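Researcher: Let's do a round of design. I'm pasting the structure tokens now; please hold your answer until I've finished.
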């Protein structure tokens, strides 16, 4: 839109001078359109796109209102849907608990091969299973807390 020789993101005196020669409304529309194109190209657009698109539209609306001298709309009263929820991969849910269970099984195997009593081997298995369950519960609790964190 500004037809500058370089495509850097630095705001120089040349950028400011070019922006002053362009109509504010056309520049606002161009910047918002470019931002929306960038966001739509991201692989996470299907998850976050509704919120991102809404925010770009809000910025466009406010900026155009400011450029025309009209009062900006009040965004505090908008009924925004809230944060997006990122689906968690099943493999990630089971990774830590599975690693602990595998380590416990290896420890039990080592204890058996060393000739330890059956009670020691059973204790190793019980401790490993409890640690795996505790790790899974902690992970699940942490994920639910992150999903519910305020924006």
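Researcher: That's everything. Go ahead.
Model: Designed sequence:
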């Amino acid at each position: 839109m500004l037809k500058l020789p370089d495509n850097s993101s630095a705001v120089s005196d040349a950028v400011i001078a070019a922006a002053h020669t362009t109509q504010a409304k056309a520049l606002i529309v161009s910047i918002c359109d470019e931002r929306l194109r960038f966001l739509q190209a991201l692989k996470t657009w299907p998850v976050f796109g509704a919120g991102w698109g809404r925010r770009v539209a809000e910025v466009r609306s406010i900026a155009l209102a400011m450029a025309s001298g009209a009062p900006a709309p009040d965004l505090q009263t908008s009924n925004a849907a809230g944060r997006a929820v990122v689906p968690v991969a099943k493999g990630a849910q089971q990774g830590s608990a599975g690693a602990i269970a595998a380590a416990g099984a290896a420890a039990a195997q080592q204890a058996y091969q060393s000739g330890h009593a059956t009670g020691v081997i059973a204790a190793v298995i019980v401790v490993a299973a409890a640690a795996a369950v505790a790790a899974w519960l902690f992970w699940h609790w942490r994920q639910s807390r992150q999903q519910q964190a305020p924006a």
